Amino acid sequence: MKDVNKYTILAVDDAKDSLMLLEFDLIEAGYQVVTADSGNAALSLLQDVEVDLVLLDMYMPGISGLSTLQEIKNQSNLAHTPVIMLSASGDQEQIVAALEFGEDDYVTKPYISNVLLARMRNSLRLMEKTQQLEKLAKTDSLTQVNNRGSFEDLVSKAISQAKRTDQNVSLAMFDLDFFKNVNDTYGHETGDKALIDFAGILIETFRDYDIIGRIGGEEFAVCMPNTLIQDAFNACERCREALESHNINVDYEGSNHQLSLTVSIGVTSARGHLMDFDDLLRIADHGLYKAKKNGRNQSVIEGEFENINKNSTTEVVGEDVSNVSHSDDQATEIVSDEKYPGINYSVGLNNVLGDEDLFAEILVMFYQDHGQDHLNIEQAINEGAEQKIKHLVHTLKGVSCSVGALELFECCKVLDIAVTENNTEQYQDLFAPLKVEIVKVVSGIELRLADKL
């Protein structure tokens, strides 16, 4: 287990004296503590603050502890957060109901501090073991990117979402050139280091919400949701060039050598109801084969995809787009979605597994909790309140990505980095586009969901 003071505990109780006592005991034990005096307050707080465990009073006015527990466990991002129920009642039916809803433990009040702390440690330990097992099942142990099974599962979900919202999905296959020679000449330890370095370059090159996987051996793949084919190609070229200029220091026959590698890439894109994971992978792999055959260290577009009007198809086989001009040299361009201005609806909806009603509720909470963030951030910048700026921007960055406000996420990301590095002279310039984006997002939610606000 990690150090106690690195855990954040949410304590929920409508009785202020009980909540104060609970907070005191937890802080005394070394935990970070946040509190809420109602179920609604707890659920709202959980949208903005990452917690490791929830201590939840069973009986509260308004939304009850059981209902709050249900809401927590129904949210995919909170489902594995351990919840310990607290109650002065010994009602067996309520205890059983709580267990069926997914509580991890039950402690009677007045609680014995040492007993409660021991039960918390057990719940946290079990949570960590579960997370480790899940990670092992989904992650390539060497490179720490998705393994093939996890990659296929995530991409299949992205494709299903793209079908519902009529969006493009681009997919690229990567194969390190002459990799067998690396293992044969320098040994498998050096080969492993090369694979780890390349995975790192993939992570640095592509967006946080792109899906990266190791398909096997020296083959990797990246899925880029809502991305046009030429933008996907552009990103792959940046990755190829980054690897080409990257040097790996190796110890060979008693002296230091610098090893450089290249990669061949096949890129494809699809749109519409005919999209299929196996077909995308197969077509991208065919492009990869052509890249190898044509001399390696290059990207090749391969495949066919439906046009927006769906009345015709455009075939792009081995197309040379090396001379295509791109005005944006940053991350791949995102296909716009005007259902909610500033929000990529398909990305946000995919984060809640396609539940449109739940997504609408989350957007309402975003509006309520962050609708004034641009004013609060601006005030904090003017006052030079570094900690407040950091908290507001970092929190907004997390929730922006969750709701699919991708441009707002990028704006928050660069400002967050500037705050971390204390580049105060950049704050105003970086805040300006952030303000534009959050006003756009909030105004769009207000327009679409006025009846729910």
Helical residue percent band: 40-55%
What is the total domain count?
3
Distance between the termini: 42 Å
Weakly predicted, low-confidence segments:
304-337
**CATH class label of the largest domain:** Alpha Beta
Total count of strands:
14
- Per the CATH scheme, the topology name of the largest domain is Alpha-Beta Plaits
How many helix segments? 16
Q: What structural category characterises the helix and strand content?
A: alpha/beta
Instruction: Tell me the major beta sheet.
Output: 5 strands, parallel
Q: How much is the radius of gyration in Å?
A: 25 Å
Which CATH architecture of the largest domain is right? Answer: 2-Layer Sandwich
What amount of the residues lies in strands? 15-25%
Give a description of the structure.
Helices cover 51% and strands 16% of the residues. The chain has 453 residues and is an alpha/beta fold. The protein folds into 3 domains: 4-138, Response regulator (Rossmann fold); 148-315, Alpha-Beta Plaits (2-Layer Sandwich); 345-452, Up-down Bundle (Four Helix Bundle (Hemerythrin (Met), subunit A)), CATH 1.20.120. The strands form 4 sheets. It has a 5-stranded parallel sheet, sandwiched between helices. Strands 7-8-6-11-12 form a 5-stranded mixed sheet, sandwiched between helices. A two-stranded antiparallel sheet has the order 9-10. Helix 2 (39-46) runs parallel beside helix 3 and helix 15 runs antiparallel to helix 16 (427-448). The protein starts with 7 loop residues before the first strand and ends in a 5-residue tail after the last helix. Mean pLDDT is 84; it is low at 304-337.
